[in-house]
Predict the structure of ABC transporter ATP-binding protein.
Amino acid sequence: MKNENVIEAQNLTKMFGDFTAVNAISFKVKKGEIFGFLGANGAGKTTAMKMLIGISKPTSGAAKVAGFDVFTNAEDIKKNIGYMSQKFALYDDLTVKENITFFGGIYGLSRKSIKEKSTILIEELGLEKVASKLVGSLPLGWKQKLSFSVSLLHDPKIVFLDEPTGGVDPITRRQFWEMIYKAANQGTTVFVTTHYMDEAEYCDRVSIMVNGKIEALDTPKKLKQQFNVANMNDVFLKLARG
């Protein structure tokens, strides 16, 4: 099952009038893979992600996510994925427990399951002392880790993370990636965008978008060999400069 493709895109395209935001991109992502989706601001990666998670209809091409077609089965896709947006997704005016309960209900979990998962989640994150505090009072790093954990509440096949470590300190970033590794080891596919090039090194494979097109796609090791550079930041710079 490890070789099963859970995301498949073929010539996926999104146009806004005469502007082509995503230009015929093709790629596959395997079950349990950590797939890095990189690109500068405006490269088209967020637009591509929105098509894959079922909230933006492609102009042309084809794609399947968790076995469902992005054109005809968008609602089924949403039920089988987790999503953590670039802007913090939980509700600041609800407590930690209330957020978990609320999103558990949205994901269709039973009250018993929500209670069990809530207890486990709070213990794993070490949030016992602040479980009854408003989420808005928590440090950003705690918010991000909680948001990621909530996106996994319903055991999705795939979790999409849009710039999940933006603005957090290096220690929290490392802890966050430990959580990503744990999810992947348990079979969850992780599709992650990041502008931190050192984080690209943590991914199994990486695609790099430039002006709406995927200009490179491989393991970090092979990309560094291909471009004859020592780190992923230099790979990115070479592609950006054309």
About this structure: Residues 227 and 238 are 8 Å apart (CA to CA). The first strand starts at residue 5 and ends at 16. The chain has a mean pLDDT of 91.
